[in-house]
Design goal:
- There is one protein chain.
- It is built from 9 helices and 22 strands.
- The chain has an 8-stranded mixed β-sheet, with helices on both faces.
- It is α/β, with parallel strands linked by helices and 410 residues long.
- α6 (301-310) runs antiparallel to α7 (343-357) and α6 (301-310) packs parallel to α9.
- Helix content is 25%, strand content 26%.
Length: 410
């Protein structure tokens, strides 16, 4: 492998051009039509016939690590993907982000992804056939389209088995296991990569009856403002990835610029498969551009469900194609584009697991204070640690009222 620098077109995901097909579309949440549109099967068949270039097949394992590296089988059954791509840069990205088998390995495939950056189409097209278990991606070179496409599939499959897929980071600290929910740009990767923590995953995790597992085996960190003083863990991991010639640099200079590297490049991370404990602490991150929420609050009950089901934050520029400014956003489950089933299916699972395991839940504002100044990273890190180490006063109803007032105003 070699280090790769890629400028993509577009520079973000294209959810408005994603369509679902098949009888299983009845399980989609149709109340979110921006993300879950049902297409005509004739369009699927026509597009599928075009997606037959000479490509490289990559065997990628998601949901958990390959059994070839871990003799102890975990509870979750593997979902196996064969990814076909014509682009070596995207192949390296997949190898950074997922546990990949060689093309000579014999394994059965659950899902197949066809990815073509050279096919001439007027705009990005992402087609997902839930019955045939195929995904087609063309007209875009944005790396996150593959990553989040796979996560969307996982999020569709897991709840049937009582397993909760989560758009969150995970880490251990002072003998506790912790989760951080949040949209892109709210600080999941940065905060969970604190040098005092040991990283489990920076973006996608599943929660089963025994505890939590990582879904990916790589990191996809924003590069804006990256310095050894403020982001030491990420900075050191990037330098190691450069040395090992596996770093993928995406869209340098733009607001959504990112860096991809295997989690093995992160010194203070878990590198081998492991079944982790149930989380003791859960953090909801909101990049609140209005400055109406305090820097930290303990919440419980109805307030937890309401925040999870609304997922209030401010969307950062470049997360999706065409977005160039910060704006208020409500994204159910802190990841609406990747959670295809009705929101209540996910929130019911979350509340059940929180109640069963007596988890503490906190809201962390990584955005603005009441004077319009953004909270400093070091201050937010101290707030998170204080929540873990101390018994914080419950502010559920105060926070819930603020959220409801905010929803009315937008």
């Amino acid at each position: 492998m070699t280090n790769i620098n890629i400028t993509t077109n577009p520079t973000g995901r294209s959810p408005e051009n994603k369509y679902f097909f098949g009888h299983k579309t009845k399980c989609l949440d149709k109340t979110r039509p921006k993300y879950y549109k049902v297409g005509d099967m004739k369009d699927w068949e026509k597009f599928f016939d075009l997606m037959t270039p000479k490509v490289t097949a990559i065997g990628a394992w998601a949901r958990e690590h390959s059994p070839y590296r871990e003799p102890l089988r975990l509870e979750t059954c593997n979902t196996k993907f064969t990814i076909h791509t014509n682009d070596a840069r995207h192949e390296q990205f997949v190898r950074n982000m997922f546990d990949v088998l060689s093309t000579e390995s014999r394994f059965s495939t659950d899902w197949t992804i066809w990815h073509n950056t050279e096919l001439k189409v007027p705009h990005p097209k992402i087609y997902v056939n839930l019955d045939k278990k195929n995904m087609l991606i063309a007209g875009t070179t944005f790396l996150g389209e593959i990553k989040k496409g796979i996560f969307g599939i996982i999020s569709f499959e897991l709840p049937r088995d009582g397993i909760l897929p989560m758009h969150c980071s995970a880490f251990t600290y002072n003998d506790t296991t912790n989760l951080m929910f949040g949209l892109s740009g709210t600080g999941k990767t940065t905060l969970s990569s604190d040098p005092d923590y040991r990283l489990i995953s920076d973006d996608e995790v599943s929660w089963n009856s025994k505890g939590i597992e990582m879904i990916e085996t790589g990191c996809y960190a924003k590069s804006e403002g990256l310095t050894p003083e403020t982001h030491k863990t990420i900075f050191d991991a990037v330098e190691k990835a450069k040395t090992e010639e596996c770093l993928v640099i995406e869209n340098p200079g733009v607001s959504n610029a990112r860096l991809s590297y295997p989690i093995t490049c992160v010194e203070n991370a878990y590198h081998e498969p492991k079944q982790f404990d149930h989380p003791q602490n859960i953090f909801f991150l909101t990049m609140d551009a209005k400055g109406v929420f305090p820097p930290y609050s303990k919440i419980c009950g109805t307030t937890v469900r309401r925040f999870f089901e609304t997922g209030y934050t401010s969307q950062m520029p470049g997360t999706e194609a065409g977005d160039n400014e910060i704006k208020p956003l409500f994204s159910p489950c802190y990841g609406s584009p990747f959670m295809p089933r009705p929101v209540k299916e996910y929130s019911d699972l979350l509340m059940k697991k929180i109640d069963e395991n007596e988890c503490n839940v906190y809201l962390i504002n990584t955005g603005m204070d009441k004077d319009g100044e953004r909270f400093a990273l070091d201050f937010t890190r101290k707030c998170v640690k204080m929540c873990i180490e101390n018994n914080i006063e419950d502010r559920s109803w105060e926070v819930l009222k603020t959220l409801e007032d905010l929803i009315k105003d937008i």
